[in-house]
Specification:
It is built from six helices and no strands. By secondary structure, the chain is an all-alpha fold. It has one domain.
């Protein structure tokens, strides 16, 4: 979905910004994947408490298997697409360095702090 979005945004900007848009979106895929696996999941959904942030008990997907790992990967798609959508909002107005810096916030923008906390899996399938 994100590569398609990159090409869509690339078609909407001026010719001098096409490569910048493509690089920002493809870089988002790689950096957010690493951040999500290392700390994003555990900060967003880790722990059973209702605190503002999760605990760090599941860093690197530790203890996840089966359905829990599937849910973590599904949630990662939203963590990847969020900064890619933001890149489209600033198309042609943000340099690549600034885009790389802002994409690091993607895994945390639409996860634990959502008002309804949709997508938080039940405690059963997460830990085995």
């Amino acid at each position: 979905m994100t590569p398609g979005l990159a090409f869509f945004y690339g078609g909407m900007v001026r010719a001098k910004n096409v490569l910048n848009m493509l690089m920002m979106n493809f870089f988002t895929i790689s950096i957010v994947t690493v951040i999500w696996v290392l700390v994003g999941w555990t900060v967003a959904f880790g722990g059973e408490g209702g605190g503002i942030i999760g605990d760090f008990s599941e860093m690197g997907f530790e203890g996840l298997s089966g359905d829990g790992l599937l849910i973590a990967m599904f949630q990662m798609t939203f963590a990847i697409i969020t900064p890619a959508l933001i890149a489209g909002a600033v198309a042609g107005r943000m340099k690549f360095k600034a885009g790389c810096f802002s994409s690091r916030c993607g895994p945390f923008l639409s996860t634990r702090w959502s008002p309804l906390d949709l997508g938080r899996p039940a405690s059963g399938p997460r830990r085995h």
